[in-house]
Amino acid sequence: MRPKKTRWIKCEPGERCFRPQCNSKTKLEGVILSLDEFEAVRFADWEGLSQEEIAGHMKVHRSTISRILKSARSKIADALVNIKAIKVEGGCCSVISGKKK
């Protein structure tokens, strides 16, 4: 298998975990959203950037962004529909420091 190219992200990889409060008595299943998936969703859905613009920021090909977004949105939908927690961690990323774009 071909090694993954490093994705460049701006978001600091602190602890990010979201869980439904409505189902607190039972053990909750969860999904893992990688940092690059989180960053791609942030760029696309929060900042409204195109896939081409996101690819430039993350220094990968546009088709890679398309696959990352598809995976991320599928995980988020699974969590919302099936009442699961979302934890953001991991991925093959490097953090851009400072105010570079």
Descriptive overview:
The protein is of the alpha/beta class and 101 residues long. The protein has a single domain (7-19, 33-95), classed as Arc Repressor Mutant, subunit A (Orthogonal Bundle), CATH 1.10.10. Helix content is 40%, strand content 17%. It contains 3 helices and 5 strands. The protein has helices spanning 35-46, 51-58, 62-81; strands spanning 7-9, 16-18, 30-33, 85-88, 93-95. Strands 2-4-3 form a 3-stranded mixed β-sheet. A two-stranded parallel sheet has the order 1-5. Helix 1 (35-46) packs across helix 3. The mean pLDDT is 81.
Count of individual helical segments: 3
CATH architecture: Orthogonal Bundle
* CATH fold-type name: Arc Repressor Mutant, subunit A
Mean pLDDT: 81
* Measured distance between first and last alpha carbons: 31 Å
CATH class category: Mainly Alpha
Number of domains: 1
Topology:
Elements: E1 7-9, E2 16-18, E3 30-33, H1 35-46, H2 51-58, H3 62-81, E4 85-88, E5 93-95
Parallel strand pairs: 1-5, 3-4
Antiparallel strand pairs: 2-4
Entry keywords:
101 residues; alpha/beta; Arc Repressor Mutant, subunit A; 3-stranded mixed beta sheet; 5 strands
Give a concise summary.
This protein is an alpha/beta fold and 101 residues long.
